[in-house]
Task: structure prediction
Amino acid sequence: MSEPSMSSADAWPPNWSYVAGVPAATGEYRQRPEDFQVEEQFDFAPEGHGEHWWLWLEKRGMTTPDLARLLARAVDIPVRDVGFSGLKDRDAVTRQWFSLALPGREPPAEWDAGLAERGVRCLEAVRHPRKLKRGVHRANRFHLRIRGEAIDAAETRARWDRLVAEGVPNYFGPQRFGPAGRNLQRARQLLARGWRKRQDPQGLLLSTARSYLFNQVLSARVTDGTWCVPQPGDVLNLNGTASRFASAQVGEDLLARAEAGDLHPTGPLWGVGRLESEGEVAEREAAIATGHAELSDGLVQAGARHDRRPLRLRLGEAEWEREEEAVRLSFTLPRGAFATSVLRELFRHPTLI
Result:
């Protein structure tokens, strides 16, 4: 029996936001790597001294872990001594920092001789005292070109303007679930057997399971229109920060702050620990988890730690620029957000529905 497709597995729920349902116009994106550009943004810069050599690299046609392995071979260190903050797309032009542990020595001569032929450019090299850790970048800046009938459709620009003004449902994108949702099927199988780190060393399948449950909660709140409207018992996130607080009551002040984009309701990233939400919000989240007990129970047994994620994204520094045969979209998203969650609201494409 063949595995279900992503749509039948419902890994990326089909509920669109308030922006008038499913987009009518079709579009294309990522037709070439230059059409999808991503650059990490940090709140700090390397200090210029220390045991770690930090490289600001531009890559294309290569995953972040593949480049980490290439760098380890180039300077003859274990791959565990290579640090990076975020995983970046393969079929794109991406710019991000890597760190290489080189205490007391310089890199070998011509260490970068083979990088160019692999689609990698070193834009800057500087020393820093510490290894670059996962998840420390603040945001990602995207420059995307879209093509097709969508760029001439008035609906597309109207959708864009509304998303910029009011925000975007913060779905985990299809990349998280793998081709045809196969990562989700693998996660179900592994959690049913009992999760073991050696079978999921990077925790990808745990993350897939948590992402699926979060998407189900978000989908339910998109359906009833509360995904960006605080409800009694919600845990609210302060825009652009990791700060959050529970609110048993929702007054006019909180509603006004949410409407202004200053506060966002959150949904659970399932695991061990207190749910944090209360009342009907907590009951609804728990019911969704119970409906997928093979995932939620498996995550608890695996020791994943409970966390929360905003249900809404705000687009920072959003720009729409018409070119001769394309539209260039530029925007900044917080770490962990998906540009595909923005694109799916603008036009129809097989990988976005």
Q: What stands out?
A: The two ends are 24 Å apart (CA to CA). Residues 6-18+169-313 form a domain with the Pseudouridine synthase fold (CATH 3.30.2340.10).
